[in-house]
Amino acid sequence: MVYSGKKASESNEAPVEPRIGVFICHCGTNIAGSLDVIAVKEYALTLPHVVVSENYAYMCSTPGQNMIHDAIEKDHLTGIVVAACTPRLHEPTFRTATANGGLNPFRFEMANIRDQGSWVHMHDWDGGTEKAKDAVRIAVAKATMLEDLYPMAVPVEHRAMVIGAGVAGIQTSMDLAKAGIETYLIEKEPTIGGRMSQLDKTFPTLDCSQCILSPKMAEAGRMPGIKLYTLAEVEAVEGYIGAFDVTIRRHARGVLTPDEAAARGIVGGGCTGCGDCSQVCPVVRPNSWEFGMAPRKAIYIQHAQVVPLIYTIDFDACVKCGLCETACGTKKAIDLNMEDELFTIKVGTVILATGYETFPIEEKSEWGYKLYDNVISSLEFERLICASGPTIGHLIRPSDGETPKSVGFVLCAGSRDNTGIGKPYCSRFCCMYSLKHAHQVIEKIPGCRAYIFYMDIRSFGKAYEEFYYRIQEEGAKFIRGRVAQIQELPNKNLLVVAEDTLLGMPVEIEVDLVVLAAAVQPTAETEVVRRLFGVSCSADKWLLEAHPKLDPCGTTTAGVYLAGVCQGPKDIPDTVAQAEGAASAASIPIHSGQVELEPYYAQCVEKLCAGCGMCVGQCPYSALSMIVADDGRTVMTVTAAKCKGCGTCGGFCPGGAIRMQHFTSPQILAQIDAFFLGGEQ
Amino acid sequence: MADEWKPKIIGIICNWCSYAGADGAGSARTQYPPDVRIVRVMCTGRIDTLFVLKAFADGADGVLVSGCHFGDCHYLAGNYKAAKRMFLVKSVMQNMGLEHKRFRMTFVSASEGAKWAVVINDVINTVKEIGPSPIAAERKRRGL
């Protein structure tokens, strides 16, 4: 917002007769093709206080904005109404135009005649025109009552928080830290790395996933600008852009880092990652990071490249025998009585990077996942084919440990599925990793056949289509059609029953192993974090960006940004690109040092306030409190910086003593009256 | 039919969920009848029962209040508070001689454009079934 000027309290000029300018946008044919813009323009001139009414092809264009600018000067306007798309898209544009014309930007009101007008009444010319006239009348009624408002400038903490430390969170944190911003990286697992660290190779370059990620993990772990908290989750959030107070629960790890040991006065102590403790631990549990295909102890690290390299006690499994304590010796890194820790961090902006989990494919029982030993998921395949995995890279069938001679890859396992059990969307990266998997079995197991059961192959990225050709040439067999059923044969082989829609006939293929490319879905934690930060989600529960085209990293909560798959399925390049975008977006308010909050805060009209105090309990942000006024009466007062402008107090006050700026009761009632009681001159 | 009665219905809706959902219906070009006019507020929590009752006193055939789903409020709990408050509307409507069904509170999220169209269709059909507001008829008779 370019406008700046005197404070509201300094403005005490005599009220002037409102002079409103109305501007009707054609939006090309988006509006003008479905309703009579000329009739709306002429109708506007019949409304009280309207002194000018214009129509133009694209009001948001520079000439369109100049019309507003010029009219403010020429016609001495006190209020602007633009009837166009939605304020959620162009309110900022037209506010800027209003300010450029010399009027306070909050003297602008928008009538939504496209998104909620012409687009939803495309075949009702008369009905749409009438509705647009009413929308203009309602907007003009509000515009005549608008007043000068001044955004509040609030300082921004020079710190950011990133929630989720997969490749998206790591990239964002490193970018922020390199830009000189102290960054808190919060991860629920004992190590950073996320899903990418579980992958063997990445398409289409076939570089080893850990080889490219591990150095990044290590660098993030030792960067002074990054404060890393693993085994940590967000418990509560307060505040707003510039000053979020985020309460973190750090789960008891049972093991001290060298720093923590030093803080306790243990000289030269703390975990060095030597693993002596794990060797003596008598408790064995499945390693969830390896999908239960490898064992781990009750004191463990998930894999060799963990960052930080600190052991973790699984307190659900630990029997507190104390053998680890003895083995640790003088390092004294183990504390079997450690408890969860709660602390609050103040940050200016927050990036959510909570990633994904796979859809529970056992719900599609026709494929036999978890029923038949030799039906595995793609992530399990990644671990089995990985040299650092539980089988040291030897792909085996789980039933007998034999090397498979034929593998079936079932794509869209739960994706693009409208049956109600699966997900309606495309999970986007499964085609490509399944091609990679086919390549890996052909390369690693001479003579092994790879069958790819697909609906469409979506090789959408740079060098992806070429990779697809390459896998075809390597001899993978492609069968187009969704797999109907997988049956287990007595020898534990699997019969994949599908329709080949290119041949137009059913096919049955016997394979040794089936790999299901499971749909992806947001993690359970995403929903928790989303609600804490007040971020919207799409119908599929992916976090909703502020605008799909123009603000893909932002959210409708100021100061909260999105990176990676939590916003929707993405492959690694897209994830990293968005992570860099989110880091850039999140650093802008921090480097600006202050942000302007919309001045939609509540005010108490003291002479009307009876001091009942009922509003105080209504406020979700504790922005209201009771004070003793100069005349000795108890009245409410608002801490403007805490108020987010919801108006819940104003909607409740029995005495009408609360003024919600820009949404005052007289302004809202005027809009209601304008619709029902007319207002034409 | 040119002289078919068209109900006058007002929707007072929140900026973050229902207004965004209504925009979503537009982006998807979902068609519905044009009988509902919209007033935008930041949160349904802002909606004083007075606003709804004033609309009815002005002769509204129907009033729709729509916000975020419970648990999804941009301001934590404004929609819960609005929903509690709106019970009062129904008891006053009875005294005004108005049918309860003329008032509706719904929950439409930013991603539910299709649901918004369903809600609008449903509200319009319900109001059409009941017919014109007696207050509107009285205002007309008195030439107000």
Automatic annotation (TrEMBL), chain A:
Q: Which domain of life is it from?
A: Archaea
Q: Which cofactor does it need?
A: FAD; [4Fe-4S] cluster
Q: Which SUPFAM superfamilies match?
A: 4Fe-4S ferredoxins, FAD/NAD(P)-binding domain
Name the Gene3D superfamilies on file: 3.30.70.20, 3.30.70.3270, FAD/NAD(P)-binding domain (3.50.50.60)
Keyword annotations of the record: 4Fe-4S, FAD, Flavoprotein, Iron, Iron-sulfur, Metal-binding, Oxidoreductase
User: Where's the 4Fe-4S ferredoxin-type domain?
Assistant: 262-292, 309-339, 600-629, 634-663
EC numbers listed for it are 1.8.-.-
Q: Which Pfam families match?
A: Fer4_7, NAD_binding_8
Q: What class of enzyme is it?
A: oxidoreductase
Q: Provide the GO MF annotations for this entry.
A: 4 iron, 4 sulfur cluster binding; metal ion binding; oxidoreductase activity
The annotated pathway is: Cofactor metabolism; coenzyme M-coenzyme B heterodisulfide reduction; coenzyme B and coenzyme M from coenzyme M-coenzyme B heterodisulfide: step 1/1
Q: What assembly does the database describe for this protein?
A: The ferredoxin:CoB-CoM heterodisulfide reductase is composed of three subunits; HdrA, HdrB and HdrC.
Provide the family line: Belongs to the HdrA family.
Report the protein's function: Part of a complex that catalyzes the reversible reduction of CoM-S-S-CoB to the thiol-coenzymes H-S-CoM (coenzyme M) and H-S-CoB (coenzyme B).
Q: What is this protein called?
A: CoB--CoM heterodisulfide reductase iron-sulfur subunit A
Report the gene name.
ndhI_4
From TrEMBL, chain B:
Which ranges carry the F420-non-reducing hydrogenase iron-sulfur subunit D domain?
9-131
TM ranges = none
Recall the GO molecular function terms of this protein's record. Answer: iron-sulfur cluster binding; metal ion binding; oxidoreductase activity
Taxonomic superkingdom? Archaea
Q: Write out the entry's keywords from A to Z.
A: Iron, Iron-sulfur, Metal-binding, Oxidoreductase
Q: What is the protein name for this chain?
A: F420-non-reducing hydrogenase iron-sulfur subunit D domain-containing protein
